[in-house]
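Put briefly, the fold is written as integer tokens. The lines below illustrate.
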Amino acid sequence: MPPILQSKRPKDLKDTLKKFLHYLGKHKILLLIIAILVTLSALANLLGTYMFQPIIDNFADPNSDKFENLWQAIILEASIYIVGALSTLGYTQIMIYLAQKVIYELRKDMFAKMETLPLAFFDHQTHGQIMSTYTNDIDMLADAMNNAFAMLISNFIQIVGLFVLIFVLNWILSIICTIFYIIIFFYVLNASKKAKQNFEKQQAAMAKLNGFVEESLSGQKVVKVFNHEEENILEFAKQNKFLKEVGENALRYSFSMVPFVVSISYINYAVVAIIGAMLTIHPLFGITFSVGGISAYLVFVRQGTMPINQFTQQANLLLGGMAGAERIFKLIDEEAEIDDGNITLVNVKENNGTLIEVNEKTDLWAWKKSDDTLVKLQGDVRFYNVDFSYYKDKPILTDLSLYAKPAQKIAFVGSTGAGKTTITNLINRFYEIADGTITYDGIDIRQIKKHDLRQSLGIVLQDTHLFTGTIKDNIKYGKLDATDDEVIMAAKLANADNFIRRLPDGYNTFIKADGANLSQGQRQLLSIARAMIANTPVLILDEATSSIDTRTESLVEKGMDKLMEGRTVFMIAHRLSTIKNANAIMVLEHGKIIERGTHKELLEKKGIYYKLYTGALELD
């Protein structure tokens, strides 16, 4: 007997079942076939056993005239079991297909929903929690569908049919059997409950231990630098010991069910066999028992323990699957990003000063309103009295107003948490403002479809992220239909071409583990090249050169100057030398602009920026 599934019940079983049945309902024909085959399998098992009585009673006497028909009875009995075996084979195979189909649909819906969720959702969820839904919860549901869904129905039919038939055969023996079955059922139920409680503790302990191991592996350099190997070994031993203890308790209850059920079953079998034999010799209450009757009855007794035992396990397995399904549906039911915009971004060309929408790609873009009016995309971005907070009662930006005219370079300076990155996140509509207005070429960005809004914005983040694939693939992520020449040109502008060509396979060098085989500076250069190839009218550079050495930085700046020409650029930088040429520099503190002006103007004011630039004050 396998251990009982170790999982909690879903909090709202009714709602979870309703949603789960909705997915199953898409495959009604398969469900109908499975139901028919499950019923045939269960009934064939019951009927095959019941047929022992008439066959034995009718053909036990070799002098009987019916003995010559024995082969017909044997063929009939064999046919019943063959139908049952084929039905079992049929529904298990169809159930496997159905389970994988439903899991496929759930994964697809989960990922599709995840791609529509706002960044705020991921701010409140760890990657481990989300991945657990994709792995553990999906596996639990798949396991329940493959091993419990159909079998639970089959065992239920067998249990009901078994009790009906044993009472038909002999009600006196059936009362005795029922008492033993009740003892087995309640012991299994109690042991399952205690095992499940300990298995839940084991799962929590295992998750904690796995998290500790994962952190230790990813932070090996830090561990070795600070000589924490011994402390890590002791902490691992402590957590590992606790995991061993709760695991022992869980398995102790789980595996105690096998010997207990077997022992009670043998006692039940022995008692029934003795009393049944006595009834064949000495009738009780006018009740007699034939040889065929007791033979069929004893087979039922041996068979009866299995479906009762399995029914409890499968019920727990199914409940565990529903608990996993509840977390899956919770992700699927999350509210998607708000996107009520109706203005789109289209390619245009100018004809005598008039904008005309075209299908082919051009270097000219326009905003297309619902009345088909075209507004040329120029990159004019303005904030009007904007308030924003990630959490209530903790404002990040307060009454913020600023503007960036087309082709201007705007730089933000300030300490950590001042609101620099938040401003750029609001331009992208990664988050929704609490109050105020942000306009893009005179249009409220809430009226622009998010896809089109973000298509007009290029961004280079401080924390680079590279995808598994070649270097060429990663650069083309900014423009999927880019040609090889465009990829090389973007890499040259970012000054990445030289180091790429020195790699073993050049632009076809395979990247994995987020570019672990590249230096941090090289990864940043690829990120810049990716933004360059997108060729967007507005650029957001969030400390884009923070991981590049001074020499490389000067080379990158030359390439970026070409890229930024004629574009609106928002720059965030700790290195003040990189923003000297900005059209406007804004010094932020606690979500407010405390100084603004050009590099020269701010130095003349001898305020915060002057102190930062001269080293009298440092950014924290």
